[in-house]
Amino acid sequence: MENPWIYLGLFLVVGTIIPIAAIVMSAILAPRKPNPIKMSTYECGMETVGDSWVQFKAQYYVFALAFLIFDVETVFLFPWALSLNVMPLFVAVEGIIFILILLAGLYYIWQKGMLDWV
Amino acid sequence: MEFLTDPIKVVYDWLLELFLGWGWADWVAVLVIYLLGIVLFISAVMVLDILLVWVERKVVARFQDRLGPNRVGPFGLFQPFPDIIKLILKEDIIPEGADRVVFNLAPILSLASVIFLWAVVPLASRIYGVDLNVALLYIVAAGAIGTLSIIMAGWASNNKYALLGAYRMVANMISYEIPMVVALLIPTVIVGSMSFVAITEAQSDYWFVLVSPLGALIFLIAAIAELGRSPFDLNEGESEIVSGYHIEYSGMKFGLFYAGELLHAFTFGGFVAALFFGGWHGPWAQEYPLLGAFYFVVKAMIGYWVIMWVKYTVPRIRIDHMLAFNWKFLTPLAFILLMVTALTHRVLLDAPTWLYISGMFLSNVLLAWITVEVLRAQARRKRESVPPVMVGD
């Protein structure tokens, strides 16, 4: 195939259209009878109490931060992994040192208690 | 005869000749052929998805010692069709105060992100969508759109349980993306290319599960967690948080979430099969691509079976145990495995094949043994430090 990206772009467009078609079909065929009790949000059968946008627990932010660090690390590791077959041995050792530095970071946040769910 | 050895090229050439004979411009003909191929491929994937609903219901029934659907056609095979018709005809309730645009977009993106993954999966030696040279990175990126759709669903539902479920689900999914990406790096290290087609082709002599069984296991565990399936499905367990982020969805939108989850599970079964278990390789698969596609579907079904097996056997894991398991066990293990694999692979690069396979396999076994010993020492230490309780003190 001369240009794989055109095929991929078309694939993305068609792949998005098919679920949209399913929902449009449902919107045409399904009944629509709103009444206030049906439209209220679900709270295990009771009336809703309080705001529906609850306070964001700070621990999620900490997990997202740890994820970000290691995700960027894996992005850096992709070119290293690709080059192992053609580069001399010390390149592998250098990548290993990089991973070890970041594992030391993981050990640090572990001991600091940032990975606990409080 | 040539159709059997290279079906896509034969059809492509015939259609191109036909369209050029009609007087169309070159690029229009190629575009139309691409579109036809894409629509056919995605339709096949969706039909497979519908079949998977039947497979899932029959298998869960058998695991729970009952029969499953068996009325609507031979062995209940046509059961998904009335299911789909029912879902389309159900009323689509949007709760008051919900954010309409995001609410409608979430299920679309959820199913679309799974369909995007099928563009790069090699079904046979000459049957695949595209041969991207960054296919593994594309898979991780397209999977992340699914994660995005979950937080969209939870936020737009105007429901605190949906939001809580969505927070926990997304925390779970992003945490398990790290060992999954690192486990994806292991075939990259072995082959030296991120292209899915190249990785599958490189397994013609030996499957990569022989070279890196621990990598296959880590990828399987991280994939099951990434799917949001049991035992990691705290966020959509019916008894806990009443379906989590898709509480407020009804009708076809819920159907899209459900079908998307099943197709995602099958896709990851396919990834495990393609990355570690040889993909489409099998007897005579090299010359006859259709046979290779059949082998791939069989192996993907076996992978999907293992994922279902785990789902219906093991009880749900608590959220703090889930995250602790990831950050304190799987992530360090995955990185150490990557280091060991890279070093062993580089050292044994020019060794004969038997030495290479046994060297990598032994390094994996050694690492697994060390891990078990470390865990045993941890467990022993924790048990000894608890003082005995005196009754009557």
Walk me through this protein's architecture.
The complex is a heterodimer of chains A (118) and B (393). Chain A is an all-alpha fold and 118 residues long. Chain A has four helices and no strands. Chain A has one domain (4-111): Methane Monooxygenase Hydroxylase, Chain G, domain 1 (Up-down Bundle). In chain A, helix 3 (58-83) runs antiparallel to helix 4 (89-111). The termini of chain A are far apart. Chain B folds into two domains: 1-89, no CATH class; 93-376, no CATH class. Chain B has helices at residues 2-5, 7-21, 26-63, 80-89, 100-117, 135-156, 160-191, 196-201, 208-211, 213-227, 238-241, 252-276, 289-311, 319-347, 353-385. The model of chain B has no long low-confidence stretch (mean pLDDT 86).
Descriptors:
heterodimer, A: 118 residues, Methane Monooxygenase Hydroxylase, Chain G, domain 1, flat, B: 393 residues, mainly alpha, 15 helices, globular
Describe the structure concisely for a colleague.
With 118 residues, chain A is mainly alpha-helical.
What's the helix-strand series of chain B?
Answer: HHHHHHHHHHHHHHH
- What coarse outline of chain B follows from CA principal-axis ratios? globular
State mean pLDDT of chain B (0 to 100 scale): 86
End-to-end separation of chain A = 53 Å
**Integer count of domains of chain B:** 2
Whole-number tally of structural domains of chain A: 1
SSE layout and pairings?
The complex is a heterodimer of chains A (118) and B (393).
Chain A: H1 4-29, H2 36-39, H3 58-83, H4 89-111
Chain B: H1 2-5, H2 7-21, H3 26-63, H4 80-89, H5 100-117, H6 135-156, H7 160-191, H8 196-201, H9 208-211, H10 213-227, H11 238-241, H12 252-276, H13 289-311, H14 319-347, H15 353-385
Helix pairs in contact in B: 2-3, 3-12, 4-12, 5-6, 5-12, 6-7, 7-10, 7-14, 10-12, 10-14, 12-13, 14-15
